[in-house]
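Board notes (copied after class):
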Amino acid sequence: SLTIDNGGAAGANNAFVNEANALVIDAVRTVATFDLVAGGGLTDNAGNGIAATSARLNVGTGNNIGTVVNRLDIAVANLTIDDGGLAGTNSAFVREADALVIDTVRAAGTFDLVAGGDLTDNSANGIFAPDVVLNVGGTNDIGTGANRMNLDVDSLTIRNGAANGADNAIL
């Protein structure tokens, strides 16, 4: 398991980690960037997760980030899930505390995101996955009129649990 923290404060400025195997995040707190390359799946301890300005996660082809019952908890402004332009992670199940900017997400299976705020991308990339589920809540938006959400998907679901999905979805 991995902990990068200094007693609840911001933690390290940047953290660049190479892990040969699967990894469980106990708590990661960085001021700027958390960049992880792992040789296996990535989960958290079902409570803490990653807090950083930006997170770049590369678990390699065929490995998962989070699970349906234990999403990877993040509190980041920018998210990248990628492995150098290949298929990327198998599937990723992520819970973001607030708004989120997607830099790039590549998944060979499902990308399933629950976010506590608006969802946008960096205007250049976006989400590349066969199955995408986006849940940003009933008062938040996906994309904007000036920056539509870039998607390359086969199946897209926008939801908010049993209620209506996003307030606006501009794709």
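Comment from the instructor: The chain has a mean pLDDT of 85. The two ends are 38 Å apart (CA to CA).
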